[in-house]
From TrEMBL:
GO CC term, one of those recorded: plasma membrane
Compartment(s) where it occurs, according to its Swiss-Prot or TrEMBL record: Cell membrane
Gene: cydD
Coiled coil: none
Protein name, UniProt field: Thiol reductant ABC exporter subunit CydD
Keywords: ATP-binding, Cell membrane, Hydrolase, Membrane, Nucleotide-binding, Protease, Thiol protease, Transmembrane, Transmembrane helix, Transport
């Protein structure tokens, strides 16, 4: 899974045929430019120097028109090839990003901000267009056409060729110096754009919360600071671009001036050159330097695009890095899948996890969960309950130790084979924009019928809600579940699990914040769903898990004890104290 060569090298290796075609067309384009200059010089020489009748040069003018048309078509072809290369590169990069996002481990997917990811996938990939559509065609032309033109000038008048040979290198040297600066500025720009996009999207998603807590104004200032930083980064690139353009024009103007002066001296003062030769060279020189100047502009654009490509590569590299880091107990999709007899026996041996050096650490020496057991994980806030649940689910990689399923390490199972057997229902399940039926069926990989979806919805207690809707299961809901209450979102999440019929069900206390009636309905549905499956629940309210087969008590990332409710009340003071506190809270 490790990247052996850069993203740019990968893209260029896929464009070899197009690059070869660009080279062939550039050769023909160089010949057309020289042919156009030669025919035009001949036509002007015959009419204004030799006083030939216009009718005598009709064939010459026809040839000139044909060459000009061929030149236009060749230049257009180069542009079309560049656009095709850009379209293919953008399609490939977006496809690779999407495949990575879809195929990476859940732990890797959970990292990073949504806004930054969207910014790279849309803006950065689009910005890479300039490298393939402008930079590459211009670079191929610059590597071929100027050499052909220089050779022609040397043949006709070598002193002018020497001047061109001496002055021309100043343009690529300046291009390199400016290009290096542009690339750094471009990377800074996309860093700021990613930060701004992330801040803006996160603010939109949490706008209601920000307003409720009076933080909207402060967040507005944060967005303003982020946008100003992005503006400054963009203006920095524009300043470089304007400086680049000015210097290019200055170098080109001086170079053409030197050649023109030398030609004028040879033609007028020393009279050692014919008008035809002087005019031919004078026609080629601006073409020569104009081509180099345009190459410089394309070089600037290419350096900017390379900064964007670098951001894409960094995202792909970060995903690969997350993948490598998650090799402990997260699930690897490329190993042979031994299959999962269900429901599995889950075992944690010497598992350690921490979010960073010096931060909270979870340490589980040994934990065994038998088939079909109803397990509850309890403890005070911050004890590591959800972290333990994530380790069991394979959403987090352990720093050491192993999570075993039926005696085999969790990492040996394919992503799909594990997640197809598991349902994880959180306090705030995500509801996608679409119909109720679509949202229920999202948790299963098998083909399901309409009747299956209806039965799952009824089992989760959604029958009354759906019956009261004009379009029933075809009723649309907004992104994030807009239009649904908290209890209805939880029932929809349960309906997903009923449809999937998993072997293991993980709950992160889905009834928190619900009214008593809704909670009772959900508890009944959960009890029905858990029959024949292993159920692990993170419990914040102890009265909901009194009947669990085993309760695991966590404190500061360590399991202090496990057993039934009655056993823990008798022999674990911390648990007994937690029970008393919750009883007083309920009584109050």
């Amino acid at each position: 899974m490790k990247r052996n060569k850069s993203l740019l090298s990968e893209q260029l290796s896929k464009q070899r045929r197009s690059m070869l075609l660009l080279g062939i067309i550039s050769l023909a384009l160089g010949a057309a430019i020289i042919g156009q200059a030669a025919l035009m010089a001949e036509a002007v020489n015959r009419i204004f120097v030799m006083n030939a009748a216009p009718s005598s040069i009709l064939a010459l003018l026809g040839s000139l028109l044909a060459v000009m048309l061929a030149r236009t078509l060749l230049a257009h072809s180069n542009g079309r090839i560049g656009l095709s290369m850009a379209a293919l590169a953008k399609k490939t990069m977006r496809g690779e990003l999407l495949r990575k996002l879809a195929g990476d481990s859940a732990a890797a997917t959970a990292r990073g901000g949504t806004g930054g990811t969207v910014s790279v996938m849309l803006d950065a990939v689009d910005e890479s267009d300039g490298y393939f559509s402008q930079y590459l065609p211009r670079m191929v032309e610059a590597a071929i056409i100027p050499l052909i033109m220089l050779a022609a000038v040397f043949v006709w008048h070598y002193p002018s060729g020497l001047i061109m040979l001496v002055t021309a290198p100043f343009i690529p040297i300046f291009m390199v110096l400016v290009g290096l600066k542009t690339k750094r500025k471009s990377e800074e720009k996309y860093e700021e754009l990613s930060r701004f996009s992330g801040t803006f999207l996160d603010s939109l998603q949490g706008l209601v919360t920000l307003k409720l807590y009076g933080r909207a104004r402060r967040q507005e200032e944060e967005i303003k600071r982020s946008s100003l930083a992005f503006r400054e980064a963009t203006m920095g690139i524009l300043r470089i671009a304007f400086t680049n353009t000015f210097m290019m024009e200055l170098i080109v103007m001086l170079s053409i001036g030197l050649v023109s002066l030398e030609l004028a001296l040879q033609l007028v003062v020393f009279k050692t050159m014919s008008f035809h030769t002087a005019f031919f060279v004078l026609l080629l020189v601006p073409e020569f330097f104009s081509l180099l100047k345009n190459t410089g502009t394309a070089f600037h654009s290419g350096r900017t695009s390379m900064g964007a490509i670098r951001k894409v590569e960094q995202m792909l590299g970060a995903m690969d890095g997350d993948w490598q880091m998650a090799q402990g107990d997260s699930i690897q999709p490329d190993r042979a899948d031994p299959g999962i007899p269900v429901p599995p026996v889950i075992q944690l041996n010497d598992v350690r996890f921490h979010y960073g050096q010096g931060s909270f650490e979870l340490a589980v020496d040994r934990l065994l969960i038998e088939q079909g057991q109803k397990i509850a994980i309890v403890g005070r806030s911050g004890a590591g309950k959800t972290t333990l649940l994530h380790l069991i689910a394979g959403l987090l990689p352990s720093a050491s130790g192993e999570v075993l399923l039926n005696g085999r390490p969790l990492r040996e199972y394919k992503n799909n084979s594990w997640f197809d057997q598991m349902s994880y229902i959180t306090q705030h399940p995500y509801i996608f924009s679409g119909t109720l039926a679509d949202n229920i069926a999202i948790d299963t990989s098998r083909a399901v019928t309409r009747s299956d979806v209806e039965q799952a919805a009824a089992a989760a207690g959604l029958a009354e809600l759906i019956g009261g809707l004009e379009r029933g299961l075809d009723t649309g809901v907004g992104e994030g579940g807009r239009g649904l209450s908290g209890g209805e979102k939880q029932r929809l999440a349960l309906a997903r699990a009923f449809l999937n019929r998993p072997a293991i069900i993980l709950f992160d206390e889905p009834t928190v914040g619900l009214d008593v009636r809704t909670e009772r309905v959900l508890q009944e549905s959960i009890g029905s769903l858990a029959s024949g499956a292993t159920m692990i629940t993170v419990a914040h309210r102890l009265y909901t898990i009194k009947d669990a087969d085993r309760i695991i008590y966590l404190e500061n990332g360590t399991i202090l004890g496990s057993g039934s409710h009655e056993e823990l009340v008798e022999r674990l003071p911390q648990y007994a104290q937690l029970v008393q506190l919750q009883r007083k809270g309920r009584a109050g």
